[in-house]
Write a structure and sequence with these properties.
Helix content is about 40%, strand content about 15%. The chain is of the alpha/beta class. The protein starts with 9 loop residues before the first strand and ends in a 6-residue tail after the last strand.
């Protein structure tokens, strides 16, 4: 382990079986936090938890499908039973849904994306926030939005709408929870190499996407999950105590 700034703290990270969620779980564990790793993919969670344990950290597996909103209270209760407290909540789980122009989008796809990408973070903020308030001592909540919340992008109306909603939820939650010492912020990635974006293609295809066209950025570099996770981890560290209600863009200048 590389640090102890979060020793004695517990972080609940959703989407922890892969991508940005996995990188965040590993990063927070490296700073001393115990990790409650939540995802629907149990095998991926077990792999991540074993890696954290091998590095000297502590983590637990919580296999939960966030598409089933009714399971969230029990999932939070399970984490509290395992760890006794939650100090950081990272809402990194998300789906992009089926691509298609707005006139052809199905209501089923809309509902699925909005449920996982917006309603589930809302319910998690409620459940974890209530615990943080009752426990006292404040806490940190970080939502993973997207550059798609801040720019027009074809064929992804549900995803863009959900992430824009999550960005606004971040601001309003920060306003409601600030007096309890709970900081709420967001991180907005651009094109990032994760399982969600593997349909883009190989490394050369990624490079073309960020070098030209509507998804280009200022550096010409594709983001890695660790690039995003480093910002999330910072927002959970003591040094960020005066930052709340903000969105940090990790899109290499795709949004300026």
């Amino acid at each position: 382990m590389s640090g102890s700034e979060l020793a004695g703290r517990v972080a609940l990270v959703t989407g922890a079986a892969s991508g940005i969620g996995e990188a965040t779980a590993r990063g927070l564990a490296a700073h001393g936090a115990a990790i409650a790793a939540l995802d629907r993919e149990r095998s991926g969670l077990e792999r991540v938890v074993e890696a954290i344990a091998a590095a000297g950290g502590r983590a637990t597996v919580h296999a939960v499908d966030l598409g089933r909103i009714e399971t969230i209270p029990a999932a939070v209760a399970e984490v509290l039973a395992a760890h006794g407290r939650i100090d950081c909540l990272v809402n990194a789980a998300g789906v992009s849904g089926d691509e298609g122009e707005i006139l052809t989008q199905s209501e089923e796809n809309w509902d699925r994306v909005l449920t996982i990408d917006l309603k589930a973070p809302f319910r998690l903020i409620q459940e974890v926030g209530r615990h943080m308030v009752a426990r006292g001592g404040g806490g940190r909540i970080v939502n993973v939005t997207s550059s798609s919340a801040h720019r027009a992008r074809r064929v992804m109306a549900p995803y863009g709408a959900a992430k824009a909603g999550l960005a606004q939820l971040t601001r309003t939650a920060a306003a409601d929870l600030g007096r309890h010492g709970i900081n709420v912020n967001a991180v907005a990635p651009g094109v990032t190499q994760t399982p969600m974006t593997r349909t883009i293609g190989d490394a050369a295809a990624f490079e073309r996407v960020i070098a030209e066209g509507p998804l280009s950025n200022l550096t010409g570099r594709v983001s890695l999950p660790e690039d995003v996770a480093s910002a999330i981890v910072y927002l959970c560290l003591p040094g960020s105590r005066q930052i709340t209600g903000q969105t940090i863009h990790t899109s290499a200048g795709a949004i300026v």
